[in-house]
Amino acid sequence: MVVKNGDKVKVEYKGTFDDGTVFDTSEGKAPLEFEVGKHLVIKGFEDALLGMDVNEEKEIVLQPAEAYGERKEELIKEVPREQLPQDVELKPGMALMANLPNGAQVPVMIKEVSDNTVTLDLNHPLAGKVLHFKIKLLEIKEN
User: Fold this and answer.
1) Hey, what long-range contacts does 13-21 have (CB within 8 A, 24 or more apart)?
2) The whole model's pTM is what?
3) Beta strand pairing status for 95-99 and 8-16?
């Protein structure tokens, strides 16, 4: 049996950048579980699982288009300081969680802070990056 859309899978993985730096891993945590075809993980990761069999291992390299997309300059926004938490000392490089109108939360990075404004980078932190994954398929459950 191999993975197809609609199957629920359990996967161990390790994600690294070109230089080998680990940005995410399931090591020391429960395996990643999700339904293939529901777009719950990045496209390239999900696509790589299709056709894999239990205990199969694979190494993949994802370009930004298959992962978190390219960085977009229009996602760098200047907002009034009073729209952000007043009880926190805001500094460049600090990450905050922003609430979207649909209720989802996304990470945003502070680029600059002035007396009256804060410049935020709304790009996903991994946007524009080439991502390397080692994947091991542990389980397939047909729906």
Assistant:
1) 13/45, 13/133, 13/134, 13/135, 13/136, 14/133, 14/134, 15/131, 15/132, 15/133, 16/131, 16/132, 16/133, 17/129, 17/130, 17/131, 17/132, 18/130, 18/132
2) 0.82
3) unpaired
Radius of gyration of the chain (CA): 18
Residue 98 has pLDDT above 90, yes or no: no
**Domain range annotation of the chain:** 8-68+126-141, 73-121
Question: Pairing between strand 117-121 and 105-113?
Answer: antiparallel
Quick: pLDDT tens for 53-95. 999 999 999 999 999 999 999 999 999 999 888 888 899 999 9
pLDDT tens per residue across span 29-47: 999 999 999 999 999 999 9
Phi-psi region of 102 (alpha: psi -120 to 50; beta: other; left: phi over 0): alpha
Report the CATH fold assignment for 73-121.
Answer: Thrombin, subunit H (2.40.10)
The architecture of the domain spanning 8-68+126-141 is Roll (3.10)
